[in-house]
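Slide 14.
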Amino acid sequence: MNRRDVLRMLTAGAVLPALTPELFAFYQQAHPGASYSLRTLNPHQNDTVVAMIDQIIPATDTPGAKAARVNEFVDVILTEWATEEERRNFLDGLAGVDKQSNELFGKDFAAASASQQLALLRSMDDAASATRAEMSRHAPNTPVERDTQLQGDFFVVFKNITLHGYYTSEVAFTKELNLEIIPGAFHGCAAIPAERKV
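Slide 15: predicted structure.
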C-alpha cells in the first residue's frame, strides 16, 4: 500500500479520525525536539520500531516515517501517555515481532531482509484484519470507547501510532501533504499557488 492510499484512507476516516486543529496540536506536542533521548525503548526495541515504521511508511519522493522520527514519537507516547499496562503490552508486542521473525527467518526483525520484514508485517496485518472482521460480525454496533488507542491488537496499535506520528509531523505535513502548520499571515482573497493544497 502506498502513501497516497494511506492518505485516502485518512481523509475518508478509515484509519484516522479527521484532525481538528485542536487534535492536530495535541499530537504535535508528542513530537520530540532535535536532541531527544529515548526514555522507554531500549536500543534493540528502537531498532525494531525503526525497521517497522520504515516498512509501513518508506521514503519515496518525500521523506518517510524514519525521517519524520516517528520512532521518537512512539517513545514519547509510551513514556508520557501510555498506562503501565499499555506500555507493557506494546513492548511485549515488539518482543513478539522478534519471536515471529526468529521462527520464520532465524533472525530478529531488524536484522531480517526488507522482503522478509514486509512479509511478516503483511501477515500481521492480515491477522489483525481477520480479527477485526470477526469481532464486527459478532458485535457490529459496539461503540468504540474513548482513550483506547493503545489497547487491543499490537499491530493495529502500532500502525495507528505510526500513522498519527507521521501525518502530524512537520516533515509529512509540509513535504507529503504540502500544507502549512501555522500560516505566516492571513492574505484574504489571494490566489492559492498550484503546488499548495487546501
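Speaker note: The two ends are 24 Å apart (CA to CA).
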